Amino acid sequence: MDWKAVEECAIDSHIKRRLMLGFASNWVGKLANTITQLVQVPVFFHFWATSVYGDWLIVSAIPTYLAFSSIGFGNVASNEMTMRNSAGDREGALRVFQSCWWLISLICAAVGLLLAPVLYLVPVASLLNIHAISETDTKWIIFYLGVSVLLGQLEQLMGAAYTCVARYPYGSFVKTMISLAAFAATIAPVVLGYGPRTAALVFFVANGIGTLTFGLFVRKDIPWIEFGWRHARFSEIRRLAPPAFAFMGFPAGNALNLQGTLIAVGYALGPIDVAIFASARTVSRVALQMVEMVNNTFWPELSIAFGAKDESLLRSLHRRACQMALILSLFIVLCMMTFGPWFLTHWTGGKVPPSRGLLSILLLVVVVYSLWSTSSTLAKALNQHQRLAAWYIVGTGVTVLFTYLLAVRYGLYGAAGSLMISEVIMNLYVLPVSLRIAHDTFPAFAASMMHYPASLRPGVLQARLRRGKAEPGPPPL
Predict the structure, then answer these.
(1) Which of 37, 84, 164, 448 could form a disulfide with 92 if both were Cys (CB 3.0 to 4.6 A apart)?
(2) pTM for this entry
(3) Which residues fall within 8 angstroms of residue 213, CB to CB, at 6 or more apart?
């Protein structure tokens, strides 16, 4: 292979260190979420009646929809602030921060004020078929948890302050610790014998303290970030609105990809096959978590490189991110193909058969997904994702239709194979766009996927082994 064809800018030690710390902080975040899920279930089951815990799960799911209230301005602000600060425009980064801070604050305040009368007037418990938790407690739980979700929108913007100064691993770690502390605080009243309403109140108070603490950290660590309104401009909001609204297309597409296809399988094959399909896909999506960690790690660095107008570094980061995502997804897919059927059977208590064929198709979908998903991070990091979001909704919408048609004709194998449609569509759109942004060519990009550091090339490793064998051992004692 002609390695000159894939010659690229070396990623220096500072960037490598940030990438490693970023990956580690993302891993800690995933670990914290896993610990939360593992601890929550047995604790709540032990101290609350099963009916109470079941109703808690229903009620606590409602406020999560308020996370859409920021309409994507948190993500867009993070990208814009990072690019501007990297370009030396610190005043512009502050202007974006204050403009989005006040917009998100006003939106959250309006949603919170609207939430109160709605909860007062609407019989929420009756509508949700809640019986183990009273009507009054149900309303207060939704209010407390809803306000906590709204505070999370402000925390996302404060995390953007750390991202724009290339300290995103630290900002992510602090946010994870705040979330863990809030969870631990919520567990305390449960263990002490209190009910869901008190647990929700403690969670709300803990999140309020966490948000305030995060803000104090930002003021101490990044003095030029101010929480006033002197630099806020409506023109910034108007300019950032299109990419912010476009970010809403990704959760919409995810809903079509996950819930929409399950509904299609249900219409075509029935509830038993839905359970089998959903369980197998959950196992196959383990690899997606690693891909998302790669995407989140490289995202800020792509914004920094673009803001600094370092075209060579931008191209290198894009190549290395795609390479890492492919390697990790292939490795996990191989592991899941080996142990997945056994795990699936034991995880479901023998209710889902160990279909290696079904799982293999779903795992192949994950590998194809990993390439376009990581490549698309480039457009997202530069706020150039409007058409990308539209294509994602179109691709997943088409997939839902074909999931039904192929499931009727070919059963679960057809349903699994249909998921490949959106992945192929997205690869055909995303890769050319990303290569154009990075000023790269497909042959050079493809060759770079097989390009490893010189120290890891087989010839170099063999030479080291030969040298090691030729060197005399230590003298006998």
Answers:
(1) 84
(2) 0.81
(3) 178
